[in-house]
Amino acid sequence: MKLEAVRDILGCRVIAGEDRLGDVVRVGCGSDLMSDVLAFIKPNALLLTGLTNIQTVRTAEIAEVIAIVYVRGKVPDKEAANLAREKGIVLLATGLPMYESCGKLYAAGLVGGSEFQEVLTHDGR
Amino acid sequence: MTDDDLFCQTFDVLGGDFLNAGRASTGIKAILREIGVEPSVIRRVAIAAYEAEMNVVLYARKGAMKLRVTPKDVRIAVEDEGEGIPDIELAMQEGYSTASEEIREMGFGAGMGLPNIKKNADEFSISSVPGRGTTLGIRIGL
After folding, report:
1. Which CATH number is A3-123 given?
2. How many CB pairs below 8 A link A and B?
3. 3-state secondary structure A56-77
4. Domain spans of chain A?
5. What is the least distance, in Å, from the CA of A5 to any CA of chain B?
6. Domain contains B16
7. Which candidate among A26, B3, B40, B79 keeps its CA 20 to 30 Å from the CA of A65?
8. Rounded CA gap, A120 and A86, in Å?
9. What's the burial of B40, exposed, middle or buried (CB within 10 Å: 0-12/13-18/19+)?
């Protein structure tokens, strides 16, 4: 799913990475626990979280997250936004809560971690 | 640096420095990418290193992460000065944590860090002296 589709589906404001909305995310992950993100997230993912600190962006960089959606009307702090611009990670913000954000994206075809393998098989990659 | 090492570098990590927490691990990731290490290996090293680095930032006064790359493997040795871990067996259990509310609010301290490091490593060792500090050894084969 292209990030511009994520933006439109969730009515997001773009905080960082306006020029990268053509990038594609292959899997979604919603969590406020960065250790769970590190343990379970797949590469090229979209991370949805209610945390707004700089560790969300560091975690994204380590775990090859393409973009972060901050849910529940939250916006990342200045350090997080600056680091994301430096590292080329797209930051979006939506007023929707976590459950609805994940549900809308899933309904639009963005799979979760447990289904990711299946997608890989279909693609033959 | 020994004759077998392709690369060797030590990164200092400061306890409580949340703004810079993760810089050592992203530095390690960049080095491995430059050397041409396979992406799936880089991902495992980066996640293990980051969890270890966060443990130093969250729980210790200071520490050092030593990266060694040989033709066969990537090794990371982490040594910190801090309170140490009184019961390592307990600390290795998923979900066990002594983290403060402040640490949990940052998205860490869920008792996943050490098990996560072990999961990503081919070999993992841990020792600790309560009141002195903790030492980790991580080896991931190439």
Report:
1. 3.40.1390.20
2. 69
3. HHHHHHHCCEEEEEECCCCCCC
4. 3-123
5. 27
6. yes
7. B79
8. 30
9. exposed
Q: Per-residue pLDDT tens for A45-65? A: 999 999 999 999 999 999 999
What is the model's pTM? Answer: 0.91
Domain assignment of residue B29, yes or no? yes
Give the three-class secondary structure for A15.
Answer: strand
Q: How many CB atoms lie within 10 A of CB A109?
A: 8
pLDDT, tens digit only, all 125 positions of chain A: 999 999 999 999 999 999 999 999 999 999 999 989 999 889 999 999 999 999 999 999 999 999 999 999 999 999 999 999 999 999 999 999 999 999 999 999 999 988 887 555 444 44
pLDDT tens per residue, range B24-66: 999 999 999 999 999 999 999 999 999 999 999 999 999 999 9
Across the interface, whether the CB atoms of A62 and B19 are under 8 A apart is answered no
Decide if B46 is inside a domain.
Answer: yes
Total domain count, chain B: 1
- pLDDT value for B42: 97
> What is the reported pLDDT for A124?
40
Phi-psi sector, A64: left (phi>0), alpha (psi -120 to 50), beta:
left
**Which residues in chain A touch residue B115, judged by CB atoms under 8 angstroms apart?**
39
Are the C-beta atoms of A23 and A90 separated by less than 8 Å? yes
Say which residue the tokens 């292959």 belong to.
A26
Q: Identify the residue among A55, A65, A83 best suited for mutation to test binding to B, counting B beta carbons within 10 A and taking the highest.
A: A55
Q: Could you tell me if residue B40 is inside a domain?
A: yes
pLDDT value at residue A115: 86
Is B107 part of the contact surface with chain A (CB cutoff 8 Å)?
yes
Parent domain of B73: 7-141
Q: CATH number of the domain that B117 lies in?
A: 3.30.565.10
pLDDT in tens, B77-95: 999 999 999 999 999 999 8
